[in-house]
Here is the input.
Amino acid sequence: MEKIGTGQKTYDYEIVKGIWTRLEGPEDVLELMDKGTDGVIAVIRDAGATFLSPVFDELSGVICTGGTIRSHIGIVSREFQIPGLIAAEFSHEPENGTEVILDGTETTGSIYLID
Here is the structure.
């Protein structure tokens, strides 16, 4: 496994596997609703991303490159118990469809590529 990023975890959670899926807005969420959310780890920029509302409780995880754990996405992640990282930084961003791991077992959350 290759570590590609870190972030503030929204709460303590076990290791979660999922599919890296960049979502930029409501159109992407509508498309995801048609394809299905099974195993999706959503990657977003805006910590106030209310456009995720229709699918949030179906996600395997969420990674946000902005905000703090007190922002909307951090609060909703804790409430729904969806593993999350906030203010995430990556060494490089994988392509959509890449299998990744979110690790919330240590002080700082980590993102790993699955070999």
